[in-house]
Amino acid sequence: MKKRIGFVSNSSTSSFCILGIEVNGIEEEKMRKMVQEKHPDEFKVEKVRACECDIDTDQNFCPNCGTHVWEEVGDSIEDLDVYELLELVCQKTPLYFHNYDGDTYIGLGEGGVDSAIKQGKNPAEVAAEAIKEAGIRPDIETTDIRLYSGAYYS
Ligand SMILES: [Zn+2]
């Protein structure tokens, strides 16, 4: 268990609590592949007609109105950083992640732990299962799950 509590004077603090794993050293490329596999219909950059002239041309600029004939629409997965990728990986799972002091944790938050308990489930098992399913660490065991918490000035 990792715990760091700062003394509170008159500045406000934020805290986090995650039952999960530390994901430092996760490879961005691997994550990118994972996200692409999970969201095959997103991250398609398509060329769409940008000008409305009824001219068939393979030029970049329309000879009639002078604007770009084609426009690229959509988000390329290459534009996302590792945190945005993580966020996508967490979508549709009870997982969330937190960056703290240069470390990144992913797992169940308080709400996730609470709802696991209410369902009579072992929260560590739920966290491990979700992390496995998300593809972040396919070989994870319930015993790999730890509790991480911290507080910091915000
Ligand atoms: Zn045009």
How would you sum up this structure, described in words?
- The chain has 4 helices and 7 strands; from the N terminus they run ββαββαββααβ.
- By secondary structure, the protein is of the alpha+beta class.
- The strands form 2 sheets. A 5-stranded mixed beta sheet has the order 1-7-2-6-5. Strands 3-4 form a two-stranded antiparallel sheet.
- A hairpin with a 2-residue loop joins strand 5 (96-100) and strand 6.
- Helix 1 packs parallel to helix 2 (82-90).
- The radius of gyration is 22 Å and the shape is elongated.
- The chain binds zinc ion (ZN).
In a nutshell, what does this entry contain?
This protein is of the alpha+beta class and 154 residues long. It has one domain (2-40, 78-153). The chain is built from 4 helices and 7 strands; from the N terminus they run ββαββαββααβ.
Report the span from N to C terminus.
Answer: 22 Å
How many separate structural domains?
Answer: 1
What is the SS-derived class? alpha+beta
Mean pLDDT: 85
Radius of gyration equals 22 Å
What topology, given as strand order, has the largest sheet? Answer: 1-7-2-6-5
Contiguous uncertain segments of 5+ residues? none
General form = elongated
Oligomer: single chain
Order of helices and strands: EEHEEHEEHHE
